[in-house]
Write the structure tokens for this entry.
Amino acid sequence: MNTTTLFFQLFQNMLVLLAAPLLLGWVNNCRAWMQGRSAAGIFQPYRSLAKLFHKDAVLAHNASPLFRHTPYLLFVSMWLAAAMVPVLAIDLPLSAAVDVIALVGIFALARVFIALAAMDIGTSFGTLGARREMLISFLAEPALLMVFFTASMIAHSTSLTTIVETLAHKQFVIHPSLAFAGIAFLMVLLAENARIPVDNPSTHLELTMIHEAMILEYSARHLALIEWASAIKLFAYITIGIALFLPFGIAEAGNWGALPFALVILALKLAAAGFGLALLESVSAKLRIFRAPEYLGTAFLLAVLGILTLNLLKV
Amino acid sequence: MTLAQQLINLFAALLLLISFAMLSQRRVLTLINLFAWQGLILAISAAVVAWTSHQHHLYYSAGLTLLLKVLVLPWLLHRLIRKLQIKWDVETLFNIPTTMLIGIVMVVFAFNLALPISALSATVTKSTLGIALACVLLSFMMMITRRKAVPQVIGFLAMENGLFFAATSATYGMPMVVELGIALDVLVGTFIFGIFFFHIRETFDSLDIKHMEKLKED
Amino acid sequence: MEILWLLGIPLAGGLLLALFGGKRYAAELNSLTSFATFAASAVLTLKIISGGPMTAFNEQFFIDPFNVFLVALTAFVGFTTSLFSRPYMRIEEHHGKLSHNMLRLYHSMYQLFSFTMLLALTTNNMGILWVAMEAATLTTVLLVSLYRTPASLEAAWKYFILCGVGIAQALFGTILLYFAAEKVLGAGGTALLWTHLNAVKTDLEPTVLSLAFVFLLVGYGTKVGLAPLHNWLPDAHAEGPTPISAVLSGLLLNVALYAVVRSKVLVDGALETHFAGNLMMGFGLLSVVMAAFFLSRQKDIKRLFAYSSIEHMGLMTFAFGMGGAVATFAALLHMTVHCLTKSAIFYAVGHAAQNSGTQIMDSIRGLIKTSPTIGWGLILGTLAILGMPPFGVFASEFLIITTAMHEHSWATPFLLVALGVAFAAIFGKVQPMVFGETESLRLPHPPALLPVFVHLGLVLLLGLYIPPYLADWYRQAAALLG
């Protein structure tokens, strides 16, 4: 590990940290435009975070240390996950650790803690949200794993770096299996990030909310950290999607010349992905919660079909 | 792998996807459209196979497929559901995830069944035989799970599509005279099904085949 | 040339009757067409007997002693059934059960059905065989639902869906067959010709062929009515018009079995094992046993005999599965006598049910008093189908069982028990129908049941004495099938 690659790693870490709210702002903005509302500006998430950080935190009397520590844990694990994904360049120092299964594990860890914290206070909404979240994630996780396995089988490795390298530098081949996996991944992304059609990020309607129900008891800096972590999670998911399905134009660590190009490409991809996400959310309606298993079952099915076609067609 | 081969694989994967979509689709109208799409993909893939393998008779079968399964049959079905006023019919399907899981098991089964055969095949499309067989089994399953007459028939037609694809991928299609015969049978069959729908509706006031489960050994 | 007549007459008749089928003279026209078909088949048969197997029209048609015997049988029973159907359908019309349009459909489809069966029998192309079998389903499905009652619609729907699914499996089997053939014979139209396949059968890929046979057996087996794929058969027989029950039982099942046997010859050649035979024996035995035990639970007379058909088709499948000269000979003989007897029974049953106004056995009593011809026809037919000597069924069943004792002794108890149970069930139900007490008066006009007695007479003849040319003919066919 030399200093250049280390710098690349640090640069990427800071980038995901700072760019994540921007991406969220961009998605919200696009959504507002499409729905004919006046947008709050793409920097609105920063302002919200700043506001929350300046407030005094209020905690329930019976809150345990778990409740207080969860936001930090959540934030750190999301940051770690996002930092591991080859966003800008491959062969980063952390990339030795970027196994796709480990990545799923990190997401699972964060989920367990937020669910526990949600039940910690003992309000009915928190418990309800936690249970729903568990329902969703226990269905989404296998689908996500299957998506990763499809890509791993093409690259013959579960290391995300190797996968990206293989896919980005191979000659162009149509992979029907990756198309299946891509759709499945998109569906999982929507579910895991509490977007429409599974959850609605901008509502507190108690009958339907999932993610918001879990964090109802948080305030001020705790809430800010959780919101920020959510933004990073969305960023991480989108970059994983980019890494798996559109890895073209990624730089190699230490290659200064390629960095600006990779940055521009990344910005364009992110912008497009955010726009697409907003479009999807605008044209689809939220599913009833009991339909969610069906939705995620479809995602799982598609991912498995991806693996199966891969096995049969060898592409 | 050549581009044609990749394309054929892509079409095969799409066919499989459509089969699953049909399995889980509740709306009759969408089902018919899916069937038309399936036919279209079938026709294109047959044309690609014809182009890459220089089998000219396959162009005719592709044309026949296009005519019959993309234009005539969907048109007939559309007309039928309009006349029967079930255009917006929505079927209640129970337990779609379970159906899907069974579907996946079927796909695995079909793939394994097809493996020894495709190993012997010399066509560029040999690896798609498993998918073709999977489509057949999935349509078969669709017929079993449906409780209404029209979707059952669409399942039947989709099964024939799967068989056509199997013929294309294993052997570059059956001899022309046989294909013409099969096409004729399918067309006549659809007509008869259409007549049937009206008879069933007239007698039972519904196209739900749950009314037709009286003949049983007790 | 004879083939052209054989196929052309029913096809033209079907088209003609589609126009004039509702007229007064339609039934006569129907019989006339069937008779002409029978005459053509007779000419063809004579030609084959004297000249041996032949192909025609660029090898698209192939006639050998095996199928020409079925062609003759099919055309003959088609003709006698048309004779039976003339008064029968007329009475149905008088009862107001049928309209002119329905009769037109009936007559037209009757001829087209004959056409598809004859095409299936004579074609040399395994693909066309499939097409013809499917077409046979298509032509009969609207006949099963001819009365438009809820039950008949249900039966027809079941028939359509089950046979459609079944026959789709057979298409996959045919595709696999073509796939194997194409490697040896090259692509194109000749690779599905049975004669060509038969010539190179030892070179065909065994794995593919065994898989193909499984699909073909399941597919065509559905139409044969083999358990557990038989569900459509009792319903279709019970709810359709009786002439259709007669031709379904007597002819269509035979034709479907013919398709299975043709496939078996190819598979046996390729595999050089008893795989196909074992499968057929298994399915056949299962059908015999299953049908025998269902017989005692039947209340409807036509359902009863439909299950009896399943039993006998199972027996034939079993016999063909055993293979060898004697068993195949017995199976062919059984095919003939079962076809003749069962259609005769359905004629008698048709009249009995028509006169009593019901198909429920408990409501039909004392036929011997109300109408001696029907009564005697039914009881003699029943005795014949149950394998009583001296009828032909006895001879064929005896041959099958003795062969089974020699070669597959494990199967004998199953067969004997099943036949015993079937005997008890059918005889116990038919006897009171014929000889029971009744209040009804004697029918004013005895119905014309000539076809019943002609058939039963033939069956009796075959039981007492098989003419040498016929025996020779069976032996030739048996030799062809190996």
About this structure: The two ends of chain A are 35 Å apart (CA to CA). The beta strands of chain A are 89-90, 251-252.
